[in-house]
Design brief:
Number of helices: 25
Strand content: 5-15%
Radius of gyration: 26 Å
Strand order of the largest sheet: 6-2-1-7-8-10-9
Helix content: 55-70%
Shape: globular
Structural class: alpha/beta
Largest sheet: 7 strands, mixed
Distance between the termini: 63 Å
Amino acid sequence: MSRRPLPADVHRFRALVAGRLGLQFEDGRLDLLADLLQQRCEQWGGGSCTEYLDRLVANGGWPHELPAIATELTVGETYFFRHPDHFAAFAEIALPERQRARADVHRLRILSAGCASGEEAYSLAILLRDGAMQLAGWTVDITGIDVNRASLARATGGHYAPWSLRETPPQVMARYFRPDGRGFVLDDAVRSMVAFEERNLLDDDPAFWQPETFDVVFCRNVIMYFTPDAMRLVIGRIAHTLAPGGFLFLGYAETLRGISPEFHLCHSHDTFYYQRRPAAELHTALGDPAAIVAGARLGLDDPTEANGSWAESIQRAADRIAALAGRRARQPSRARDAEAAGTASQPNAATLLARALELLREERLADAMDVVRTLPPASRTDADAQLLRAVLLTNSGDLAEAERVCRHLLELDELNAGAHYLLALCREQAGDARAAVDHNQAAAYLDPGFAMPHVHLGLVARRGGDLETARRELEQAWVLLSREDPARILLFGGGFSRQALAELCRAELTACGSAS
């Protein structure tokens, strides 16, 4: 038996797994990687862990070893018709739209990326077969790809245990499956509709990832395991291969917030999914896509920074605005020099933003708005500054102007969770409870750690007499409030402290119990 890998080898292995497979492993899971590295070294038997890693990264690679590592690290749990609302949106929204778009060629292409053992791809095939009358005369190609060779072998075999069929409707079971020992075998006609391929989503293969090829892509519960760089690479690749107007379905816990500006957010059938923006719209409405992605990660509602003191949170926000001010639009050097000479004596953006946030904390709303108005032009239109302006307008009662600012923000970045939440407040006050719920749900989906949309959803449901929903949302809000970023409580808490908001949730939960 080989000795335990050295920490340096384990960290090198983690970097290799991230770079070649896109998989992210936090420090708490290093023991798992150490176990696998030791196992693979023992099976290889050709030398030390260091020599094993050298061979793995050598030019020309090790054709069969990386797939073996992927098989060990990517065992996924799935089943037929998982998250049926996605399949309903596919059948009732995505499929008809794509048929209209492809009416000239009568051909649709569907991709199941990270297909595991095939349940998702076959679920799509069954839906299409059930709707055969609407697809008469059409060619439909379904492709399933995965890096896990063993899972693909199970998918090709089409043999499934009862656990994989636990959400399959009885009529579908009767029509498309036959008993085989302790499991079930899928009908050959359905199996023939899907082609499976072993592919690594991080590998660039221009012959496969051709532009505007696919009409619908399912990539559910895949990118949540990736590093941020791998997420952006894979989503960019998917965007490239989706036709304009094509649809992307991600897992419930996955969003494109801070990842890509190339999609519209769609909300129907009580679920969220995405639609590829037309290229012309992307460039005219959003400008530089790279800047929009960067801006999405500059926001005051950034969930990746939900720790530290209030002062630290405010300083981070101020620093982000200062950084943005440094990214001024390209202009002739003389114009830049003139601007610099005219503003050299003025406070910088970071100082002004920090002052505005401090005034908000002191509930001096008019003074805070005056400070926002004095921000340098380069930062005044930034999403952070506009979001702060919308907060001040909302707290001051100017809901019409707050709504206008929020809608402008969402035109630039419809994945801005803070803007959706503020718009929900405005819509409720306007008597539009349905829109308030929709925007709250969008905010909660886009940022699962954001407490305030759940507070508002709970209050709206309680006022509407839906006590079950009220209890669920208020309980979730109470949990999230304990770890909410202090800056976000300042911005979106309506003047309430963390403790006061938690007490409000408890009081409303008690009232829900008394009313039931």
